[in-house]
């Protein structure tokens, strides 16, 4: 199926981004494998745990693991192209985000989640892995502080929840994923971020 | 029920504290939502995962999510009152801690937990969310290093486990929660902390 | 059983290492308990969550908790011997790693895991607790960046998966655990690390 292929594609892209963070952080090859793994499947894994869908999704279908390991080796081999790959990688990452979000929302709905919870599960599936990657790399998760990344996921998830009863799964998936992809690329291209709200100076 | 109302109150207070940490850390509004969410329900969520009580508690009852989102918006709107709110917020936080602990111990006992495990689940419910908040904010969890916070939770949990078979759930809940509240406020007022044990200088 | 005794021994050793990290990080006694706990049972706990084996393993058998609390008090009492204990502690830690890995692989296989997943569960059981400890101590997990620690776990896990159908559980356990122990001690003694792959300077 197309969605499954795109899911594996997103897994590969997320894994590469995780492996390169590991390289940047001076980790060894095991660290690169771990960071690639948590970036690629971390969000979906936490979603599965919260839903009670265990063993988790990559437990039976080891193709995910194969893709992640191959992507990690590829990322290490091509690490000198890291900077040149920034722009294509971000586009690919936006596609991965779009696919992960619709898969996450769909699975949550299949488990009987309320609409708002389903949207959250979609956002978690799309953004959770990158957040765990950043925590393991001893950084504050990037998704919490800048750019339109989570917002694209939220918008896509909300549209999915609304359209799904009307248009059915297939059409809803295409529309929602396209929306995420478009919003993410539009924000990237125009360098748009969400507003921040700073506190007045605190005496601490 | 009173306990449910207090639970939602504690959820709101914890959410506000999470949102303000997000503001202090220069996160955007999505980051504030996430930090509010993990602070408010993170401890109870991990408790549910460990118990095998899935889907987790906020999955069906979306009132928690509504309270958290409203509290986050309130916290952002009132962020200039951050410093003035320190003292009332800490009192409210102590009440939230007390409620979360007794709920956590009660749920663990209902799942057949041994006494010591039930106390740990209560402490986790009360203190776990704040610890995850600190990890996401790239800080060492405050609860691990200072003040009588976890100790109040432990004492309340232990009293709960002992009194529950004797006095029944209602009376035990009131007494244990009052103990947590009293200990926490007493320590705050008198600025009491647990002892630390430093290592001799390590050659590293 | 011997394996159970060694499991408790490994639990004690991991708990001591966690407690000493807490001391080094200037945490209080509650922080030491928490760090000892997550170091000792964190890896196995996440393994159980991923497998859907809930409540988790230390929920019924509170002997783990007793061992951890006693080890923490011991570690605090003996904290001045911290430096002198480095070498014997690393040897004991290697034994704990070996035991945790074979237990983790065995449990995953019992849950019907594919070979590669079983190896990952073994590595997680052995290395996960230390990684959580480091995250809570606001450091990058050591296991991701240096020394032959995870590699020993991987090798032992892989050998376990291959030999188990041939030699049976008992012999396989002994051989695999010995391999982990040997590789870890050999690497320690010779100060061997995995290669790292640095990125070219990134403009960021």
TrEMBL record, chains A, B, C:
Coiled coil: none annotated. InterPro entries: Gly_transporter (IPR005115). The keyword Cell membrane applies. It is a multi-pass membrane protein. The chain crosses the membrane at residues 6-23, 30-50, 62-79, 91-110, 169-189. The keyword Transmembrane applies. Its main location: membrane. Keywords: Cell membrane, Membrane, Transmembrane, Transmembrane helix. Residues 6-79, 91-164 form the Glycine transporter domain. It is found in: Cell membrane. Pfam families: Gly_transporter. Belongs to the UPF0126 family. This is Membrane protein YeiH. It comes from Endozoicomonas lisbonensis.
């Amino acid at each position: 199926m197309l969605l499954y292929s795109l899911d594996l594609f997103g897994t590969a892209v997320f894994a590469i981004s995780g492996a390169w963070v590991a390289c940047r952080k001076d980790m060894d090859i095991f660290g690169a494998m771990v960071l690639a793994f948590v970036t690629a499947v971390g969000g979906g894994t936490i979603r599965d745990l919260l839903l009670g869908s265990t063993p988790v999704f990559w437990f039976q279908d080891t193709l995910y693991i194969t893709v992640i390991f191959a992507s990690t080796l590829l990322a290490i081999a091509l690490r000198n192209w890291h900077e040149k790959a920034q722009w294509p990688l971000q586009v690919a990452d936006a596609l991965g985000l779009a696919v992960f979000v619709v898969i996450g929302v769909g699975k949550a709905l299949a488990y009987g989640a309320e609409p708002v919870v389903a949207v959250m599960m979609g956002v978690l599936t799309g953004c959770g892995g990158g957040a765990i990657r950043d925590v393991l790399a001893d950084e504050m998760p990037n998704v919490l502080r800048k750019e339109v990344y989570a917002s694209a996921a939220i918008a896509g998830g909300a549209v999915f929840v609304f359209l799904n009863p009307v248009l059915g799964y297939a059409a809803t998936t295409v529309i929602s994923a396209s929306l995420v992809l478009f919003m993410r690329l539009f924000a990237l291209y125009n360098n748009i971020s969400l507003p921040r709200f700073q506190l007045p100076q605190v005496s601490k």
